[in-house]
Design a protein that fits this description.
The structure is a single chain. The chain is an alpha/beta fold and 442 residues long. 37% of the residues lie in helices and 14% in strands. The protein has 15 helices and 14 strands. Helix 1 packs parallel to helix 2, helix 7 runs parallel beside helix 13 and helix 8 packs across helix 13. It is globular. The structure holds iron/sulfur cluster (SF4) (2 copies). The site of one iron/sulfur cluster has 12 residues, from helix 11, helix 12 and helix 13.
Amino acid sequence: MDKRPYTVMLKPVGPTCNLDCEYCFYLEKWSLFPGRDTLRMSEDVLESFTRQYLADGSSGEVTFIWQGGEPTLIGLDFLRSAVELQTRYAGGRTIRNAIQTNGILLDERWCAFLAEHRFLVGISIDGPPEIHDCYRRTRGGAPTADRVLRSIALMKRAGVAFNTLTVVNRHNVMYPVAVYEFLREIGSGFQQFIPLVERILVRRKGEVLSLAGPPSDPEDSRVPTHVASWSVQPRLYREFLCSIFDRWVSRDVGRVFVQLFDGALRSWCGIGAGLCVFSEQCGDQLVLEHTGDLFSCDHFVYPAYRLGNILETSLGELVHAPAQARFGAAKQEGLPRQCLRCRMRFACNGGCPKHRFVRSVDGEPGLNYLCEAYRGFFAHIEPRMQAMARMLEVGIAPAKIMEGIRQEEARRRFTTAGRNDPCPCGSGRKFKYCCAELSSRP
Ligand code: SF4
Ligand code: SF4
């Protein structure tokens, strides 16, 4: 029986949200709960989950991850109860809480609570206001960036630890530098970039979900689909990542933590990406819906991937059941030959199975839609990653790479300067009367 460590993402209000972002893939999960007006986790489910999660987890540290929909809609009183239950069942373990929010409801009261209980807040922000507001809007269509920025200011004032989650979509993908610089300016020291990839079912099947499920869903695979207009294009996603990486590696290593770059460095060090998308297997990040239903993964909240309900079967049994082990292993087993012979497979592992819906060069199904992005990005960063991995091996901080890049850059300026150009040394003299003369002396 597989006893790998796992985490569970909690959905206390299911897909309920106070925004109506055009690209959201989770809002339509309402159709999984027909006939319900409100979706809310009961005290029973919360108590049962907390007790079982803490009893089943083997490590000394356990993290509760609150997600949605918009999890703050559950209210502060619920989260206070959650923290009390965690303390009651902790059994000597260190408890951590992380919450992913759109930031709309955060006020002084919320920030005081989050700071007091050391919640790590992930705030969704897609870039500067004019970029963020392209898709992230209220139900009435109003922009939301100002509200999010106010919440970030409140969190900073209250001492709440936060990071940013940026959905890379068809609009902001065109502005990598503006997005990255903006995130730095607002003080995001930990940045996550998630590529947006969804398909629309062209012909509905009499069920309510209209986004296509995973390619492995036999029902959906019989229905024509097209890539949703808000999805990121692979070539632009590659350019987006490469542009941000180039800025980061020459200036911000050790200061700004970009989850994807850190994961890549781990891969080059041979210790596994630590990011599910680039890991060999899936299956260790499950989802608990408000009803107590446990699903294989946030990208697989579909009836076929419902493992059971924790009020009926124990959490441990569900997590370690053969069905979840099969789900985890399918990621590797389903790789097309193009991936199997790809030299970047150690860093990519074929990406998320949800996105494997295009054909490989051999015409085989199951290649990742983002393959071009991943292959190009990993090839682009390879020399720098190899250098940083070598540094780590001999006990040098990877941030030292920035010195080397500065020297490279200086050498490049000197070797490409024209004789009549200003001297790259900054003397104000012409190059031919300054360093060019010195460098040409015997
Ligand atoms: S299915 Fe995708 S999102 Fe889920 S664990 Fe696997 S790689 Fe991660
Ligand atoms: S880069 Fe493309 S071919 Fe290589 S492992 Fe990733 S998805 Fe497969």
